[in-house]
Amino acid sequence: MKKKLTALFLIAVLMFALASCGQKKEEENNNEPADEPRVFHVGIVQLVQHPALDAATQGFQDALREKLDDRVVFDVKNGSGEPANCTTIVNGFISDEVDLIMANATPAVAAAATATSDIPILGTSVTEYGAALDIANFNGTSGINVSGTSDLAPLDQQAQMVKDLFPEAKTVGILFCSSEANSKYQVKVVSECLVKLGMEPKEFSFTDTNDIAAVAQQACDESDVLYIPTDNKAADCAETINNVASVASVPIIAGEEGICKACGVATLTIDYYDLGHETGLMAFEILENGADVSKMEIRYAPEFTKKFNPALAEKFGLTFGDDYVAIED
To answer: How far is Cα 131 from Cα 70, in angstroms, rounded to an integer?
Structure first.
């Protein structure tokens, strides 16, 4: 009997010990930290620093921070206006194994698309993606690792703005950088629109900052009005253009607000901050929700605003109605 009681006692002790170990193990498991939320690394390559592109980059970052808070880290690089620098920057992003590349402006998108076919790429401040990516019959989706937002404005309405503000103008000089594919696209379309309105378009292309003053002077000498599309090099050199056009007293209609503020009389423009913000929302869909960038349609600015430069409007004796908004200093 005594042996039996001893055996039962030992069994009870053993069971208690096992239960205690199990409870301790369960407590240890419960105390283990949960999986940390993923932090995304996003590389931003911006072709050049100027107000329109700066606003788009800021809008992009703000949108992702609103959605991801501190779960996104940005590496922002500027190409200083040189496509080759954009390629170098993108290669650095590839080595760093970023989760997504935001490429701001056409040459930046082209550099990113050439450098990687794996990392998702979102462009912004790009006029026409078919021209930017050399895709014939572009239908709104790239079919590759690239999508984004377009800053294409209604070019027919910009041409009409030239006609409405300067009805006596006969020759419209179109000033643009020859190395920007999207500028060439805009030049082609707006030229056709100007011809339909009874004006003669004349192209004046420059290659870089070294010849822009001379080309701008020639354009002023041979034109009644100048038109400048959403051209990054022109935006970067807008003050140089203004120095020439102001002395020559030749007015300029610009493709976007940044150029207009520096050298133009009026523009029909988008809000580049909003455009970048929309690009950021697309990035969130890719990073957090796993959206397939190759199937994402290019998105466009939801609205356009007529704006004028008060100082130059006064210089040329122009008055604007309530449908125009003054560009602030």
So the answer is: 36
Cβ contact 316:252 at 8 Å? no
Q: What is the pTM of this model?
A: 0.82
The number of folded domains in the chain is 2
Beta bridge partners of 176: 205
Per-residue pLDDT of 40-96, as tens digits, reads: 999 999 999 988 999 999 999 999 999 999 999 999 999 999 999 999 999 999 999
**Parent domain of 228:** 155-269+305-326
Enumerate long-range contacts of 326-329, CB under 8 Å, 24 or more apart: 327/257, 327/260, 327/261
Q: What is the CATH number of the domain that holds 114?
A: 3.40.50.2300
Query: Do 284 and 265 share a structural domain?
Result: no
